[in-house]
C-alpha cells in the first residue's frame, strides 16, 4: 500500500515536509497515514487585507470527501465523489449529519463519517514558484506546518487529524459483528503508533521525567512553569501518571500496588431532568502492608465509597481510550434500553460493571491513570460536574503516549518479536474458541442440575405418596395422570386412606403400631430431606453457577480484545524491518519502533499474567461452590440417615405423626421449574442476546418471515 513520501532527514527533531497532492488519486493513496491530512484551522481575514482578498468559502472549514456518496434530493443530501473538496458550514447536526457546501456552491447534507478536515500543505522544493507565491499571499492568520522552508516565523504545532475513531463504544452493532469495528483504519493508525514511528511527536508542552531515552527529545519543565498554570491547563499537561516504564521481559513496571474495587448496593433514583436511573456504590479497598518488624497482622483495609451511574462508567471508558491508546482495555458493557430496572438486569449490570472496573485496576498502567483516580475518589457531585468535562476535553494522546514509554535500549529482536506475535495470536484464538465451548457446556451443566433438582423433588413426592396413600397428580414418569381417581368421591377417598394409615398417621393397618409409626416418621423426614436437596441443586444452578457462568466473560474473546495490539505489533515490525534494511539504517525510526514493540509485548505479558490469575480464580471458585453444595447435601442426607438408628429412631415412637408440609403439594407438585436465568452476553459475543437486540431481531423476523422450519408467516406475506 502506498503512503506519503517520507520526510527528508533533518537535524531538527520531529520536523517534516508536507506535500500537496495533485489529484484525488494521490489523496486516496495516502489516506491510511495518520499524518496525511491535518485539521484545517479556521481562518479570519485581517483588517489590513484588501477587500477583494476575502472569499465566502474562507469562513468555512475545508474538508475532503473520503468516500463516494449518493444523496437523496428529497432529503437535501449531496452527491459527493471521493477526494472532492467541500466546505463544512455546520459540522454537528442531528443523527450524525453535517451541512456542507461544494465548490460549485451547492448546499446540502453529508454524513460526518464521509469526510475529513484538511489544511493547506506546503509544496516541496520542486513546485513551481508561481504556486509558492500564491501560498505566501494567503491570510496572515494561517498556520504553516512546522519544518517548512518557507515558514516566516515559528509556527504552532499541528495536531494530526484523527482518521477514524480512537476506540468505539460497545454497541448493538458491535455485538452483531462479534466485536469488530466498522472503522476501516487499523489500530496502528488510530492509536497514533504510525504517526509516532514516522515522525515522533511534539513534546514542547509535556512534563518529562529526569531519566530520558536518547531518542526522546523533550524540554524540562520547571516548578515555576507548573505553578503558573491554572487548573484546566494543569490537567491537560502530562504528569507522572502519563509516564510508563517497561521492564526487561518486556513487562510493565508496577508503579502502584494492586487494590480491590467492588460495585454493590444498586438503587433506583429519579431526576426531574433525566428521569429514572440506577446508582451503584463503588468501594475501593486499599490494604495496608503488614509491619514485618512488629509481626502484626495487617490492619483492616481503607475504604473509599463513591456513587456512580452507568453514564459515569461511559465517561471513564471514553477518557481511558483517549489517553491510553496503546493499552488493551476491557470492553464496557452494552447500554440497555428495555427492562433496565428489573432486579435480574440490575444485578447482571452490577456484576458486569464490577468485572469491568476490576480489570481496569488490575492493569499495571491503567490503574494509576488520573481519570481512574478521579473516578474512584471524587465524592462531590459539584466537583464531578466541574472536573469530568475537563477529562473529556483532553485531546487523544496519540503519538505522545508512546513518547512517554521508557524501556531498556536495544531489547527487541525482530525475528523473536515476529514469532512472539504469531504464537500469541494463535494462542488467544484457541483460548477464545475453547472458552466459548466451555461456556456452552457449562450452560448445559446448569440445566442438568435443574433436572437433578426436579428428579429429587419427584422422588420426594413419590416417597411421601407411598407412606401417606395420597396419589401424586400430574407425575410425568408414573405412567398415569391421576385421571383414574377423578371419579372417586370424597367419602371413598377417605375410606381408602384409613386403610393405608392408622389413627396415629402411621403407615400401617394396625392401630397403635409403634414400629410402623417410627418407620413412617423416619421415611417422612427422608422425603423432606430430598426436597431440601432439590432446593440446594436449584439454588446452586440459579445463583452460584450463574455467578461462575458470568465470570467466564473475564476470559472470553481474548483475540478480539487484543486484536488492536496484534495489528499494531505487526505493522510496527514492518516499519522496523524497512528502517533497518536496503543497506540503510534509520536509527530514529528504528528506536521509535522499539518503543511501540516494547508496549505491545508488555501488553502480551500482561495478558499472560492475568490469564493465570483468571483461570486459577475461576476454577477455584467453581470447585469451592461444588464442595459447598455437596457438603450441604451430605449434611442433609446424613441427618436423614441418622433417623433410622437409635436414639433418634427410638424417639420417633412418641406422639402421633404430623403431616408433612409437602403433602399439600401432592395434588399440584412443583415439577416444572422456572426458566433458568442466563448470563448477559459479552460485548464481543456474535449473537445478540440482550432484550433490545432480541426485540429488533424478532421485529425483523416478523416482517420478513421466519427461517425454515419455523412455519412463521411474515407481515408482508399476509398482504401478498
Automatic annotation (TrEMBL):
<dbReference type="InterPro" id="IPR036028">
    <property type="entry name" value="SH3-like_dom_sf"/>
</dbReference>
<dbReference type="InterPro" id="IPR019497">
    <property type="entry name" value="Sorting_nexin_WASP-bd-dom"/>
</dbReference>
<dbReference type="InterPro" id="IPR036871">
    <property type="entry name" value="PX_dom_sf"/>
</dbReference>
<dbReference type="Pfam" id="PF00787">
    <property type="entry name" value="PX"/>
</dbReference>
<feature type="domain" description="PX">
    <location>
        <begin position="258"/>
        <end position="382"/>
    </location>
</feature>
<feature type="region of interest" description="Disordered">
    <location>
        <begin position="132"/>
        <end position="153"/>
    </location>
</feature>
<dbReference type="InterPro" id="IPR001452">
    <property type="entry name" value="SH3_domain"/>
</dbReference>
<dbReference type="GO" id="GO:0035091">
    <property type="term" value="F:phosphatidylinositol binding"/>
</dbReference>
<dbReference type="GO" id="GO:0097320">
    <property type="term" value="P:plasma membrane tubulation"/>
</dbReference>
<feature type="domain" description="SH3">
    <location>
        <begin position="58"/>
        <end position="120"/>
    </location>
</feature>
<dbReference type="Pfam" id="PF14604">
    <property type="entry name" value="SH3_9"/>
</dbReference>
<feature type="region of interest" description="Disordered">
    <location>
        <begin position="1"/>
        <end position="22"/>
    </location>
</feature>
<protein>
    <recommendedName>
        <fullName>PX-domain-containing protein</fullName>
    </recommendedName>
</protein>
<dbReference type="Pfam" id="PF10456">
    <property type="entry name" value="BAR_3_WASP_bdg"/>
</dbReference>
<dbReference type="GO" id="GO:0005886">
    <property type="term" value="C:plasma membrane"/>
</dbReference>
<dbReference type="InterPro" id="IPR027267">
    <property type="entry name" value="AH/BAR_dom_sf"/>
</dbReference>
<dbReference type="GO" id="GO:0016197">
    <property type="term" value="P:endosomal transport"/>
</dbReference>
<dbReference type="GO" id="GO:0006897">
    <property type="term" value="P:endocytosis"/>
</dbReference>
<keyword id="KW-0728">SH3 domain</keyword>
<dbReference type="GO" id="GO:0031410">
    <property type="term" value="C:cytoplasmic vesicle"/>
</dbReference>
<feature type="region of interest" description="Disordered">
    <location>
        <begin position="472"/>
        <end position="492"/>
    </location>
</feature>
<dbReference type="InterPro" id="IPR001683">
    <property type="entry name" value="PX_dom"/>
</dbReference>
